[in-house]
Amino acid sequence: MATALLSAFKSAVNKSLAPIGIQISRAGHNWGDVANFIPFEQTMAAARARGMSVGDYVDAVMNGVPGSSQSTIDKMASVGVFSQPLNTVVEIGPGTGRYLEKTLKACKPTRYEIYETAGPWSDYLMKAYQLVLQPTDGYFMSATADHSVDLVHAHKVFSGTPFMVSMCYWQEMVRVLRPGGWAVFDVLTERCLTGDAVSTWIKSGIRNATYPAPVPRETVVSYFAGNGFTLAGSFIVPMPPGTTELLAFRK
Prior knowledge:
By secondary structure, the protein is α/β, with parallel strands linked by helices. It has nine helices and seven strands; from the N terminus they run ααααβαβαββαβααββ. A seven-stranded mixed sheet has the order 3-2-1-4-5-7-6.
C-alpha cells in the first residue's frame, strides 16, 4: 500500500478511534508484508468505531471507493457467473471477507472453501460464516479435489504476489474447476498502466518488493485459453492509487 494511502489510513483510523482514546502509530503493522496486508486488530477496531462492516470500511475509508466490492460482484454477474447454481466455491486470499460476504449472497453455495495465509483474518471469517478453511502453503490448493469446483475467485491477490505464486494458483484453478466452471481474478495488466498511471504509482511512494505486480494480459489469456477456457469478460476496476483488470474465464 502506498505511503500516501497508509498515511490516509492511519488518519482515518485515528479519527475513528479518538472517542475511545486509542491511536495507532508507525510501529504497528509491517506494510511490506503483503501476506498479512491489512492489519486485523486496527481495521476491526476502526470499522466498529464507525459503525461499519469491515468490508464497507475497507471500501469506503481505506480505499476511498465506496461500493467497489459490490461493483465487482455485479460485474461477475453481468457475464453470467451466477446465472446457474454454484455448489462449490473456492476463494483464494479472502482476507477481510469483503468479496466473500457478497458472493455468498449472490450464489448461496453449499460449500465455500477458503485459502488464507493471514491467521487472524481466517479465524474471523470462520467465526462469521459457514466455511471450509483449507490448509495452505501459499502456492497450491492441494486439499481441493480435481474437477470439483464451480467457481474459483481471487480479488486483489495477484496484484501483490510474485509471478511464480500466481502461476501456481492459475494451474490449480485449471485443475480444480469442473467443465462449465469459472475462474475469476484480477491482475495488473498493461491496460492499467496507460496515461498517467505509471507516474501515479511512482508518486504513491510504494516501494514494496512485490506490490504492485504487473502481468502481461496476453500471458494470462493465452494460458487459460490453452487449457480450455474462454474469456467471458474483463473489466477495469479500482485498486487505489490505480486500477487492476478483472478477468472472468469459463472452462
